[in-house]
Design a protein that fits this description.
There is one protein chain. With 202 residues, this protein is an alpha+beta fold. It has five helices and ten strands; from the N terminus they run H-E-E-H-E-E-E-E-H-E-H-E-E-E-H. Strands 3-4-5-6-10-9-8-7 form an eight-stranded antiparallel beta sheet. Strands 1-2 form a two-stranded antiparallel ribbon.
Amino acid sequence: MRAIVTKATFLLPLVLQLVGLSPQSVVADNQPSALGIPLGADRRTIEEIFEKAQIRAINAGDGGNSICYYEQAPKRIKDGGRVMLVFHEEKLAKIVLLIEVESQRVEPYLSRYRSLKENLTKKYGKPKQAVESMDSSCSKHPLLAIKTGKARYISLWETRDLTIGLKLAGDNFNVHFNLQYEYGKLFDKYIKSKDDEEASNL
């Protein structure tokens, strides 16, 4: 995933006002944001946003390239659960929101996926890529198909700076349902730094 001057940027001043911060102290003009979180912002700014919103850090991470978790995003959506933040050199490169649907039936999962996809399409246009498939042998047990990797629903949108991904899939009898925002120019560097680190350890 890569590549947004997001249309959600105009919502950021209102979100920041609600949590007690001024837009100037957080995000530059045209800097993308999602779920009330400005991508590309420094770690301290992100921490202040969550502190003002009284959202607890589950794992704050450590170091310039790190991953941290919070209980939820400052700007909440239905079924939105924990949020994972990926930092590169103390700048926010990626947001992953876990979608938590509690059901033993497939319909609530698919309904939520379709609803999110519809709203994301209204905002960002037609997905650049979409894969929505199920093994025909699993048609009588669709939720099990998702949990075992035999069905997957994935849509990707791209703008100038961001790639947005919506994923409903699974493996090992677990469902993986999430909404991701990658800030291309930073996340590319994060991936390269991880590849370089691995190469140096060989």
